[in-house]
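Sample pair:
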Amino acid sequence: MAAKALSFDVGDYVVYPKHGVGRVIELQRQEIAGMQLELYVLRFEKERMTLRVPTNKAESVGMRKLSSDKTLREALDTLTGKPRVKRTMWSRRAQEYEAKINSGDLVSIAEVVRDLFRADDQPEQSYSERQIFEAATSRLARELAAMEQVDEPTAQEKILEILRKAAAIHNKDKIPA
């Protein structure tokens, strides 16, 4: 176990796979069950939640720094792709979408957003589709906002704009000439 633990500083934005983007607000030392533990204290503003993660477990739970610019570009490029909707039962697709969102992987989250997006001229989403779409969009927007230092609504609008433009291009392909 010689691997160097990930190190985050107070004030850093981090991504916790199950909860999205949070901020390290302090490093704590606590005695739990007779053992001294170092903890990252993470604050997730949107959920009004505070989470304590042992520093030695940060890597194994998938906690990471914000994505690189390259990964962000790849995720935004993914949004412009043609939606891929499998013809499997919704419950199975929903499980796959939830797993992608909870993976914390930006490109996987972008795939969910792309696949569940509905343009104004397309049939409306079911309630559960809309819930998953909103969760994925929010997760993607929060990381985009933290990276570009803008607020979440601005980041969300940027994502929706990319999706609308892509939908217009893909829908043009369907119209017979």
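The first strand starts at residue 13 and ends at 16.
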